[in-house]
Amino acid sequence: MDNLQFQESVVDKIQGWLIRVTSLRTMDILAYQEETRISGPVMEIGVFCGKYFSVLARSAQRSKSKLLGIDTFQWAPESRVMESLCMSEETKHVEVLLWKRFSHECSPQEIVEQLHGRPRFISIDGSHECEDVYLDLVLAEQVLSNRGIVAIDDFLNPGTLGVNEATHKFFARPRLVVPVAYISNKLFAAHRSVAGAYRGAIEKSIMEDKTEPQCKNFRELLAQARHKVEQPLWGHPILLC
To answer: Alpha helix locations (H) across the chain?
Structure first.
């Protein structure tokens, strides 16, 4: 099924909060990785019922990659996540690992060894406390593939100020990853070596999307001036959608 069909038949039916345009752009980013042979496992910190996890699982299954979910599972059990993945033939056969623990209890070495490689896509959507988020960002940077990308949930959300503080703290000095796009509640940061390529791929997917209002607004603003859809953040240009 295509992205919209998967969104409506699977993602929309899983409990959780995820803006549709962000979900669709994530599917495009993952498809770009597959098309350009950016290989490797996929992981998420903070799985809940598996809403965003299902988007990652779809790509992991297609590319025969391992999928890791790290969560305390205090709000939803592991069985609930597996039920979400079993909703679709596109996700039910993925090789998935679910670690019931705090993310700070996971070492970079353990993650890379258990996944047999460095993740190409990492989602950070766990604790909203500053120190926790900061440690998650550091962990992601340590294990990320040199062609990988990180999605930071709830950045610029006024209800999760700890995420904002931690992200600013993290990027206060030069990093291996740099921000490339902000799409409705998620900040995407890619490895320096491929940041420009990801930015170009994301913009292409926005320009080609004829269904989402945010994408139509992006095109209209771009027609007026580039700075209305792209601005510097920590010294790097990021797309705004």
So the answer is: 3-9, 20-35, 51-62, 78-85, 108-115, 130-143, 161-170, 195-208, 213-224
Q: Is 39 left (phi over 0), alpha (psi -120 to 50) or beta?
A: beta
Q: Give which of 107, 112, 106, 161 is closest to 133, Cα–Cα.
A: 161
- pTM as predicted: 0.97
Domains of the chain with CATH codes: 3-240 (3.40.50.150)
∠ Cα 204 207 211 (to 5°): 125
d(CA 53, CA 122): 10
First-to-last C-alpha distance (Å) of the chain: 25
Report which DSSP code applies to 159: T
The 10 Å Cβ neighbour count of residue 232 is 10
- 61-111: per-residue pLDDT in tens? 999 999 999 999 999 999 999 999 999 999 999 999 999 999 999 999 999
Q: Quick count: other Cβ atoms within 10 Å of Cβ 211?
A: 11
